[in-house]
Automatic annotation (TrEMBL):
It comes from the Bacteria. SMART domains: PKS_ER (SM00829). PANTHER family: ALCOHOL DEHYDROGENASE RELATED, RETICULON-4-INTERACTING PROTEIN 1, MITOCHONDRIAL. It comes from Kribbella speibonae. Residues 11-284 form the Enoyl reductase (ER) domain. InterPro entries: ADH-like_N, ER, GroES-like_sf, NAD(P)-bd_dom_sf, YIM1/Zinc_Alcohol_DH_Fams. One of its GO terms (molecular function) is oxidoreductase activity. This is NADP-dependent oxidoreductase. Transmembrane segments: none annotated.
């Protein structure tokens, strides 16, 4: 039976375990993919804790993970068996598994030169960064402040902004300043007062020191309302993923993968992300695919 890694009850990591799974059956508009790599995101442990139960109801046990790369096994919806693809999973879960279902309309083919490892972190984290910049409508010469610039979304947002001629400042822990500066970001510690900017991308829910401007934030709804901010969310345009895959394949964008765990250590990968302040993106490599 295919193997997956998930949880049996809402709560802490003690409910995480490997699960024997039936082979997924794709429905209309879905692709069955042999997973080669799965991105690990903070939302994964939040799903396990039940924080997203209101809008992401799951039947337990459930498999964690919502972004993957792999090879199409069951052809359909314009894709052929053997196609190298990346995309979000159906239903926002199921990625930490040997096989997963992907919605064909949100999947991108992987161009030559793009590794499965890098591709697996583009659908959610990098896609969110791209969508954020589109929503903020910044012009060349304007300024952007990224709160939490050292994470997976922040580093991609910073690179995309610099490409557009936007002046970028960001807050991050001191260990991440050198990398951010190499990307063209003016880096600040979290406890420093950040500069004013034309727009703010808040990735840590820290709006207390933010004054004015266009604001996108991951903060709670009541905090957003108090600061006149809008929620940060992924729009899901499949064209965005195609753009991102080309940028990475051509060496113009660093997706920031810094930690690759074997499937047997999926729990350790999630624990690293849950502990917070991890530098770069974390992925889980599946034994079914080539490790490149």
């Amino acid at each position: 039976m295919p193997l997956g890694y998930g949880f049996t009850s809402y709560g802490g990591p003690e409910f995480q375990r490997f699960l024997d799974l039936p082979m997924p059956e794709p429905g209309p508009g879905e692709l069955l993919v042999e997973v080669h790599s799965a991105g690990v995101n903070p939302v994964d442990w939040k799903v396990r804790e039940g924080k997203h139960r209101a809008f992401l109801p799951l039947t337990l046990p459930a498999v964690l993970g919502r972004e993957v790369s792999g090879t199409v096994i069951r052809a359909g919806a314009g894709f052929a068996a053997g196609d190298r693809v990346c995309g979000p999973t159906v239903g926002g879960c199921g990625g930490y598994a040997e096989f997963a279902l992907l919605p064909a309309e949100r999947v991108a083919r992987m161009p030559t030169g793009l590794s499965f490892t890098d591709a697996s972190v583009l659908p959610i984290a990098a896609g969110t960064a791209y969508d954020a910049l589109e929503t903020l409508h910044l012009e060349p010469g304007e300024s952007l402040l990224i709160l939490g610039a050292g994470g997976g979304v922040g580093t991609v947002a910073a690179q995309l902004a610099v490409m557009r001629g936007i002046e970028v400042a960001g807050t991050a822990s001191a260990t991440k300043h050198h990398y951010l500066q190499a990307l063209g970001v003016v880096a600040y510690d979290h406890d420093q007062e950040p500069p004013r900017a034309d727009a703010v991308l808040d990735l840590v829910g820290a709006l207390d020191n933010v004054d004015g401007g266009r604001i996108l934030s991951v903060a709670d709804p009541e905090v957003l309302a108090h600061h006149g901010a809008r929620p940060l969310k992924r729009n899901g345009d499949p064209g965005v993923l195609a753009v991102l895959t080309e940028l990475v394949a051509n060496g113009k964008l660093d997706p920031g993968v810094r930690h690759v765990y074997p499937f047997a250590e999926a729990g350790d990968a999630l624990a690293l992300v849950e502990a917070g302040h991890v530098a770069g993106k974390v992925v889980v490599g599946l034994p079914t695919g080539p490790r490149h």
